Amino acid sequence: MVQGLLSASTLWVGSYQRRMPVSLDRMYENALDWAHLPYLHRGSFSSIELIDAGDWGWRAALVSALTTHRSEAFVLELRLDRTHRRWISSTLEGPGAGSEIWTHVFEYGPRDIAIQADFFVPDVPVDQKARVGAGYQRLYQGLYDEDEAMMLGRQAALDQRAAKKSVVSEALDLGPVEAVLPQHPLDFDFNGQRWRLVEDQSEFIVYSLTCPHQLGSFVNETLIDGAITCPWHGYRFDVRSGQCLSGNKCELPTPPTVVVRGERLYAMLAE
User: Fold this and answer.
1) CATH of the domain at 239
2) Residue 45: CB partners within 8 Å, gap ≥ 6?
3) What is the pLDDT of residue 2?
């Protein structure tokens, strides 16, 4: 770690500040969530291989999106210090070894925080520090644009789940068949969840628009070969069976059944 004020001032190349309408819990959750890096931040990272993880943080080998060569992987360790409301990201091996990013978080309200990330990079000539620091600032701007959107989406999904009523409906009238079917994919709410009706290989299918892992949204995701992929962590699901094809221990919820009654289409509670 950066040792002493003289060393810190020598290695410091810049900082990044941001205020966000999210809770401290969401921010800590995000910092500890190593698995989202190559999916949510696919423009920055191409892969990650976990080495170790726990309440203390995590250590993993990452490959930059700028290369596909695993030989150019770097080992990154993130250590969370809740007492001082900070985490330290240290590059231990590979490109950038010896660099550290110290991120402090400041809480202004239940869902109002600010972060400051300070960048410490060894062996940067004095006349190059501003350029290197600006590069880190651009990187963090992009990463936090994506992270903030994910944290807000997760919080909204958690709030919606907490407010969900226990009343269960047996059926939902989706409308006249001749009007509904040409509209597919059709999104609708039924019994506290968002669903999508699609036609795939001449078959009508209904599946949940919420990932069961951390409640990521499938709304903007395309169905490919009968499967949907979460943009946050890359979990892939067969929409017919609900099975997780990426090997993770979760599955899509049982969808309502879609039936035709007379000239109208209904979503029915699955038996």
Assistant:
1) 2.102.10.10
2) 37, 38, 62, 63, 64, 65
3) 54
